[in-house]
Amino acid sequence: MGDVHHFTLPRDFIIGNGVLKQVGRVFVNYWRPDKTKVLVVTGPRIYRLLFDNLAESLGKSGFNVEVYKAEKATVSIAEDLEDIARRGGFDVIVGFGGGKSIDLAKYASKNLQADFVSIPTAASHDGITSPFASLKGFNKPISVRAKVPTLILLDAEIISKAPSRLNRAGMGDILGKWSAVLDWRLAHKLRNEYYGEYAASLALLSFKHVVSNGREIATWRPDGVRILLEALVSSGVAMCIAGSSRPASGSEHLFSHALDMVAKRPALHGEQVALGSIMMLYIHGKNWRRVRTVMKTVGLPTTAHELGVSDVEILEALTIAHKIRPERYTILGEKGLTWEAAEKIARVTGVIS
Ligand SMILES: [Zn+2]
Q1: CA-CA 20 to 30 A from 153: which of 19, 124, 249, 285?
Q2: Are 209 and 103 contacting, i.e. CB atoms less than 8 angstroms apart?
Q3: DSSP character at residue 108
Q4: C-alpha gyration radius of the chain
Q5: How far apart are the CA of 145 and the centre of ligand 1, in A?
Q6: Which of 187, 72, 199, 176 minimizes the C-alpha distance to 126?
Q7: Tell me: the pLDDT tens digits for 68-100?
Q8: How far apart are the CA of 223 and the centre of ligand 1, in A?
């Protein structure tokens, strides 16, 4: 293929209030109800709270719906799901719930002819709009390429009722895009790595969008949540266009993945990413205080203590982060941080005291 760059985008995004009630009507624009088998992947909590609403909407439009319930997002569960979907001849796999259900459905449909539809019930990270999935059971805790969603349906009303910690984490994931883009530019300059200005601008736009609307988002009312959802869409599309998670994931994500490995009780992905980003922005020489102020406004943890991890775990994660994904060049370089440097960075940014 040489220099040819091929990317796939979702066909439709539907954002607003009451979207869940319209799922059936949206589906008939894409699939024939009498010829389409739909498999909905969800967790036990969302099954109890919201599955009937989704099934009713699809049923009214004549779709035959079956459900696959999963509590965890592991590679083996995704493979089981893929097997069931293949043998059952399903045409559409819907991820319905938090990040786990979306990731399972997205990964399981990767090698199938079936279309994948993302209907998140929380805005916990940009995986709800991206073609990458993060599952437990791979060698390393990084996200892997899965399937681009055909449709992404985002019901701001439903998502505004999700546990606020989950939505805050989604905001944290977006706050990490500034350092991610800075790392990408650095890799381009130092390593001649492919860099796409358009994709990078889209990821940065999502960052700026949540920074300038922090207060409105922090009401966690549907209008505020909608702003966050737009940012998550922008970040997901940036990854589709780049053909990798590069525009959305740099040293702050490496730090979060490292913390997942070393912490006894890791926090949520987006919480860790935001905390990592203030330290990485400090190394980049950027205005990390501005990001920390936004984190405080929306109630994201800004210290190890608030995150629920120890100071030592933060330092361990900082010093091993560069090893998580050596091909992803970042400000951490090839050798990473020394213990002393890590300690200084974490202290200056107020992450440890
Ligand atoms: Zn992320």
Answers
A1: 249
A2: no
A3: H
A4: 20
A5: 14
A6: 176
A7: 999 999 999 999 999 999 999 999 999 999 889
A8: 23
d(CA 246, CA 331): 14
Rounded to the nearest angstrom, the distance between the alpha carbon of 66 and the centre of ligand 1 is: 30
CA of 31 to the centre of ligand 1 (A): 31
In the reported structure, the alpha carbon of residue 67 is separated from the centroid of ligand 1 by a whole-number distance in angstroms of: 27
Q: Is residue 234 part of a domain?
A: yes
Q: How many structural domains comprise the chain?
A: 2
**What residue numbers bound the domain in which 123 lies?**
12-162
Tokens of 349: 């940014």
Confidence class of residue 2 from pLDDT cuts 50, 70 and 90? low
**What pLDDT sits at residue 144?**
85
- CA-based nearest residue to 280, from 351, 212, 200: 351
pLDDT of residue 7: 87
Residue 4 binned pLDDT confidence (cut-offs 50, 70, 90): confident
Which band of pLDDT confidence, cut at 50, 70 and 90, is reported for residue 341?
A: very high
How far away, in angstroms, is 10 Cα from ligand 1 center? 19
As given in the structure block, the two tokens for residue 9 are: 């985008």
State whether 336 and 314 are in the same domain. Answer: yes
147 near 138, Cβ under 8 Å? no
Tokens 């950027």 map to which residue?
286
Spacing, Cα 108 to ligand 1 middle (Å): 20
Do residues 183 and 317 both lie within one domain?
yes
Q: Tell me what the pLDDT averaged over the chain comes to.
A: 95
In the structure encoding, which two tokens stand for residue 72, read together? Answer: 């965890």
**Per residue in 152-188, pLDDT tens?**
999 999 999 999 999 999 999 999 999 999 999 999 9
247 and 172 in a common domain = yes
Beta-bridged to residue 257, according to DSSP, are none
Other C-beta atoms closer than 10 Å to the C-beta of 184 total 27
Distance from residue 270's CA to the centre of ligand 1 (Å): 6
**CATH number where 92 lies:** 3.40.50.1970
Instruction: Indicate if 279 and 265 belong to the same structural domain.
Output: yes
Q: What is the mean pLDDT of residues 223-244?
A: 95
Query: Which of 247, 313, 241 lies closest to 276 in space, CA to CA?
Result: 313
- Tell how far the Cα of 325 is from the centroid of ligand 1, in angstroms: 15
| pLDDT at residue 198 greater than cutoff 70 | yes
